[in-house]
Design goal:
It is a single chain. By secondary structure, the protein is of the alpha/beta class. It has one domain: Queuine tRNA-ribosyltransferase-like (TIM Barrel, Alpha-Beta Barrel). The chain has eight helices and 14 strands. The strands form four sheets. Strands 1, 2, 3, 4 and 5 form a five-stranded antiparallel sheet that branches. Strands 6-7-11-12 form a four-stranded parallel sheet. Helix 6 packs across helix 7. The longest helix has 21 residues. The two termini are 32 Å apart.
Length: 241
């Protein structure tokens, strides 16, 4: 692999707008041939050296491992899930236990998925509209209305460092028209997520690039999201299934 060029090192936080107080990304080097980057992402609960693998702790735990064992692997950030934590044990129980970090005994950075992927994988149990998604809980059959505002409210209550925008994840295969509608709806939902977000100083909201397997749609989505100048961005939305 070609070496990284340390001469490209710089901080991306110097000219950022309010809402970046607890976050900073320092670019340490860029590969001259591939454009791959190495950097350090600063969060309120510590740093994440990028690129870095995030262990999945869906229900506030990495199965079979203690937090100390997870840390001993070199992991610096854990991924938990909004949808699953909302269903069990519930975000208010987590908040009552001191927030997600204390609840799971992990003092490093945490990212929570919005729940979008899990909701949209319930293809026979949900209905999608411009407002959001209505689905039946697989635990008790209760109807749940998951909207962008609700996803952000839950994530604000959980207290993770990075929270994800609620998006529509189209299936694969899907027509260009269907993916284009999902991409536009995800952008509309993102604007609602931004409006609903209550903790921008301590929780970074990441939009998610959509567009399925259509390269031009993905490029358009990335350019549109970049105009919003968010703390960070996620590359996702390829398919469900």
């Amino acid at each position: 692999m070609p070496p990284f060029d340390p001469s490209t090192s710089k901080s991306s936080s110097d000219s950022k707008p309010p809402g970046w107080a607890g976050f900073k990304f320092e670019l340490q080097g860029t590969c001259s041939q591939t454009g791959a980057r190495a950097g350090v992402f600063h969060t309120p609960h510590g740093i994440v050296e990028t690129p870095r693998f995030m262990p999945v702790g869906t229900l506030a735990n990495v199965k079979t491992l203690t937090p100390a064992q997870v840390k001993s692997t070199g992991a610096q950030m854990i991924l938990s899930n909004t949808y699953h934590l909302h269903l069990q044990p519930g975000e208010h129980i987590v908040a009552g236990g001191g927030g997600l970090h204390r609840f799971m005994g992990w003092d490093g950075p945490i990212l929570t998925d919005s729940g979008g992927f899990q909701v949209f994988s319930l293809s026979e149990m949900r209905e999608i509209s411009d407002d959001g998604v209505v689905f039946r809980s697989p635990h008790d059959g209760k109807l749940i209305n998951f909207t962008p505002e609700e996803s952000i409210r839950i994530q604000n209550t959980l207290g993770s460092d990075v929270i994800m925008a609620f998006d529509e994840c189209p299936p694969y295969p899907a027509s260009r028209e269907a993916v284009q509608r999902a991409t536009q709806r995800s952008y509309d939902w993102l604007l609602r997520c931004i409006e609903a977000h209550r903790n921008p100083e301590t929780q970074a909201l990441f939009p998610i690039v959509q567009g399925g397997t259509y390269l031009d749609l993905r490029s358009q989505a990335a350019a549109q999201l970049a105009e919003l100048d968010m703390v960070g961005y996620a590359g996702g939305g390829v398919c469900v299934g």
